[in-house]
């Protein structure tokens, strides 16, 4: 296992793509956070969750993590490298586990940088947009237990999105198809929730969708109105990721490379 | 993934015509089973998601007294077939045959509800309010054959901040003299009937009159109702907030009927109060020595989603187009990405050295195939979701056949052009997956942000990105004479139907030109 881990880590760090994607994750997440902070302004009648505002960039950043995860599997199939990999690590589930662990570690580090950057940007910009203590808003900070839970949970959210993508990529192999399925799975549930008017349907979609349920972890205010509690929501996403990895691992074992 | 190439004769290679090239590309598309499956999946997810969204939208109005619930009342429909708001206070009497009515509006004032939501008829309307004159608050003269919802009318009026207007049959609106109504500058108004022709005129002194315009009301009966009306529309609003109802009061004097029967009594009527339009209070009138004071709430105008009217969200029927777009983006990206991956691209360019033509043939084949699949899917989605929405008690906006056709064909076009952009981006990046990310980030994500994140980020992205093409699905027109937020959530896009389509076409052309330039510059 240690050798498999070392091999996966070497493959990841010795090509330029993953480094670019990691940089893209941080830049897009923090960039969208800055654009959002510049576009919103305090309104007395609408109550905002400043942490959710700070983490708007995650909506886009997760697509980059998904891309990174898909590349880890699909590039090997595209180039035929997968046959060398499996010759070196014949036990396929060991290979997939090693990939998952290396991806999780990379996503953890890059995700922490992206979330940290977003928190700093929000801390600096939101008070200037009227989200001040005087208006009843807390400053975005990691010193508060709820906000720390939201920020740390969002890093875990990004890791889980990566694992979900890895499982799907292992199942369908082709990069374009895997990317399409992952992003479809992520974005369609909130879109559906945005247009249905029935409160029950809205709640059920929020509870089931990997993105809507997982992002419950971003909430810091009005927790009682959430469709699913923060950690349970993250659990739903974890179940999606586990399911995808199980299917991907199962197909990997059954099929020729 | 494997494909066969139809062009196998060496003689064909140099002079192969464009039809052969099209045939070769079509053969590649139809012989890969997973690509055909993707096309079928695109159609199925479009219908499936539209059906799901329609299923999740129930509307019911409950009667607390009898404890019964029923669906939303149908929207009122005007003479032109469009949904309308037709709620106002009317002080009227009969006018038989030709004639005219004249009055002077000496003041127009108003209040807005400060309650969190619009106040419905019958609920403590005046507990919370502050002075506010809605820009489209109206006080003036109106002529209509009957007081039922959606009936024909012609009216000349003073407004909150849009000067004097002559309006008729809901959609027609012509500006007269400008300026607000003040004690120093009152507005004289006159409405004249001659057969089916109604002429509106205004004056500053009651002596020299200026004709604003004329309106033709088809099949006007000999006896009509004429009189003074006041309406004041909902302010603000949107999908998640019904806006705040307003209430206006107009003072009239020098009210004269040409037929001289001004001595007959006026009748006051709160016209069409009910669930159709959020009003603050029904209104009323009283006569003073100086003239008449009339108060009212509501609007006489085309219905605008998000402005006091209670229709189902206009875009529900085709929301599944998103899912289809993701599927065809994958297909478009694979259509060239797979050739790069397998090295088939070198065979293709050997068979047809003119690379620009290969790209053109691929674009035509992918656009044609996705359009042909998306068109029936859009039609089925529309029919199915309409059926489900109606069954769930939603009131639907009536659409003209032309609009309905444009929305369905436009959705298929949107799907087809998304596949073409994906093809072009995959040609540029030579990698299918990055093309899929680019397409989703520039088409699905902007609308997602516009629908879910408050503020203007999503609206701006809907102006700049290929997602602007979603405007083809816009069902209801904007009206200058109705102040409303006109947000994407309400079904209105920033550049209007054809402006948004132009932005999408711009991106298709840019992507194809960049792809062609790189194809010719690079080795395969």
Mean pLDDT of chain A: 89
Note poorly predicted spans of chain B. Answer: 7-14, 116-122
**Number of H- or I-type helical stretches of chain B:** 10
Proportion of residues in extended strands of chain A: under 5%
Strand content of chain B: 15-25%
What best-fitting shape of chain B do the alpha-carbon axes yield? Answer: elongated
**From the alpha-carbon coordinates, what is the Rg of chain A to the nearest angstrom?**
19 Å
Q: Give the chain pair forming the largest contact, with residue counts.
A: A-B, 41 and 50 residues
| Major sheet size, sense and barrel closure of chain B | 8 strands, antiparallel
Helix content of chain A: over 70%
What is the assembly state of the chains in this entry? Answer: heterodimer
Order of helices and strands of chain B: HHHEEEEEEEEEEEEEEEEEEEHHHHHHH
Question: Per the principal axes of the C-alpha atoms, what is the gross shape of chain A?
Answer: globular
Number of beta strands of chain A: 0
Provide a count of the helices of chain A. Answer: 11
Alpha-carbon distance between the termini of chain B? 19 Å
* Distance between the amino and carboxyl termini of chain A: 20 Å
Structure write-up:
The complex is a heterodimer of chains A (257) and B (524). Chain A has eleven helices and no strands. In chain A, 75% of the residues lie in helices and 0% in strands. With 257 residues, chain A is mostly helical. In chain B, 37% of the residues lie in helices and 23% in strands. Chain B has helices at 10-15, 18-31, 33-55, 321-342, 344-351, 355-391, 401-429, 432-452, 457-464, 496-521; strands at 61-63, 68-70, 84-86, 88-96, 99-113, 129-131, 138-144, 154-159, 164-168, 172-175, 187-194, 197-203, 210-216, 223-231, 246-257, 267-271, 284-287, 292-296, 300-302. In chain B, the strands form four sheets. In chain B, strands 5, 6, 11, 12, 13, 15, 17 and 18 form an eight-stranded antiparallel beta sheet that branches. In chain B, strands 10-9-8-7-14-4-16 form a seven-stranded antiparallel beta sheet, with no helix packed on it. Chain B has a two-stranded antiparallel ribbon with strand order 1-2. In chain B, α3 packs parallel to α6, α4 packs parallel to α7 (401-429) and α4 (321-342) runs antiparallel to α8 (432-452). At the A-B interface, α2, α4, α8 and α9 of A face α3, α4 and α8 of B.
């Amino acid at each position: 296992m240690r050798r498999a881990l070392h091999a996966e880590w070497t493959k990841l760090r010795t090509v330029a793509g993953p480094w670019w994607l990691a940089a893209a994750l941080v830049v897009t997440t923090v960039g969208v956070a800055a654009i959002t902070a510049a576009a919103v302004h305090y309104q007395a009648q609408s109550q905002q969750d400043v942490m959710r505002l700070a983490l708007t960039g995650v909506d886009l950043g997760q697509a980059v993590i998904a891309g990174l995860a898909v590349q880890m599997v699909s590039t090997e199939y595209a180039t035929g490298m997968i046959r060398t990999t499996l010759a070196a690590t014949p036990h396929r589930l060991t290979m997939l586990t090693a990939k998952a662990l290396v991806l999780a570690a990379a996503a953890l580090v890059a995700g922490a940088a992206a979330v940290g950057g977003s928190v700093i940007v929000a801390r600096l910009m939101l008070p200037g947009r009227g989200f001040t203590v005087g208006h009843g808003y807390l400053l975005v900070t990691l010193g508060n237990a709820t906000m720390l839970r939201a920020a740390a949970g969002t890093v875990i959210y990004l890791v889980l999105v990566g694992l979900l993508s890895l499982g799907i990529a292992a199942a369908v192999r082709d990069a374009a198809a895997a990317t399409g399925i992952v992003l479809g799975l992520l974005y369609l549930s909130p879109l559906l929730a945005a247009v249905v008017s029935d409160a029950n349907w809205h709640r059920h979609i929020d509870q089931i969708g990997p993105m809507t349920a997982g992002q419950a972890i971003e909430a810091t205010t009005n927790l009682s109105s959430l469709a699913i509690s923060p950690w349970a929501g993250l659990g739903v996403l974890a179940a999606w990721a586990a399911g995808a990895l199980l299917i991907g691992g199962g197909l990997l074992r059954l099929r020729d490379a | 993934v494997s494909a066969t190439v139809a062009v196998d004769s060496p003689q064909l290679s140099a002079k192969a015509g464009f039809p052969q090239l099209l045939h070769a590309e079509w053969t590649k598309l139809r012989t890969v089973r997973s690509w055909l499956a993707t096309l079928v999946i695109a159609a199925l997810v479009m219908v499936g998601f539209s059906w799901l969204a329609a299923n999740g939208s129930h509307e019911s109005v409950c009667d607390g007294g009898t404890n019964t619930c029923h669906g939303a009342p149908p929207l009122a429909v005007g003479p032109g077939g469009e949904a309308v708001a037709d709620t106002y206070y009317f002080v009227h009497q009969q006018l038989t045959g030709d004639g005219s009515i004249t009055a002077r509006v000496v003041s127009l004032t108003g209040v807005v509800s400060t309650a969190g939501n619009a106040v419905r008829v019958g609920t403590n309307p005046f507990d919370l309010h502050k002075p506010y004159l809605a820009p489209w608050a109206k006080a003036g003269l109106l002529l209509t054959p009957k007081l039922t919802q959606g009936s024909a009318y012609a009216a000349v009026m003073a407004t909150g901040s849009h000067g004097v207007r002559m309006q008729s049959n809901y959609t027609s609106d012509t500006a007269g003299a400008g300026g607000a109504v003040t004690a120093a500058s009152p507005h004289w108004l006159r409405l004249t009937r001659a057969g089916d022709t109604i002429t509106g005129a205004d004056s500053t002194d009651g002596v020299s009159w200026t004709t604003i315009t004329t309106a033709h009301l088809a099949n006007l009966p000999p006896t009509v109702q004429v009189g003074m009306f006041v309406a004041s529309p909902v302010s603000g609003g949107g999908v998640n907030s019904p806006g705040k109802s307003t209430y206006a009061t107009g003072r009239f004097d020098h009210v004269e009927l040409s037929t001289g029967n001004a001595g007959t009594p006026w009748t006051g009527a709160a016209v069409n109060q009910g669930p159709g339009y959020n009003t603050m209070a029904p209104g009323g009138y009283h006569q003073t020595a100086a003239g008449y004071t009339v108060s009212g709430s509501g609007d006489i105008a085309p219905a605008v989603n998000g402005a006091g009217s209670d229709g189902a969200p206009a875009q529900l029927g085709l929301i599944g187009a998103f899912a289809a777009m993701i599927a065809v983006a994958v297909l478009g990206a694979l259509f060239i990405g797979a050739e790069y991956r397998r090295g088939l691209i070198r065979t293709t360019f050997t068979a047809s050295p003119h690379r620009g033509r290969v790209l053109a043939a691929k674009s035509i084949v992918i656009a044609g195939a996705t359009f042909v699949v998306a068109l029936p899917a859009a039609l089925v989605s529309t029919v199915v979701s309409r059926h489900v929405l109606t069954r769930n008690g939603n009131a639907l906006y009536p659409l003209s056949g032309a609009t309905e056709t444009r929305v369905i064909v436009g959705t298929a076009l949107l799907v087809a052009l998304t596949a073409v952009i994906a093809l072009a981006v995959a040609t540029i990046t030579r990698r299918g997956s990055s093309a899929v990310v680019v397409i989703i980030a520039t088409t699905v994500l902007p609308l997602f942000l516009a629908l879910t994140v408050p503020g203007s980020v999503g609206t701006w992205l809907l102006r700049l990105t290929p997602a602007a093409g979603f405007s083809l699905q816009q069902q209801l027109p904007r009206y200058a004479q109705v102040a409303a937020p006109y947000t994407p959530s309400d079904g209105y896009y920033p550049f209007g139907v054809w402006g948004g389509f132009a932005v999408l076409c711009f991106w298709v052309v840019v992507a194809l030109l960049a792809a062609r330039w790189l194809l010719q510059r690079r080795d395969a």
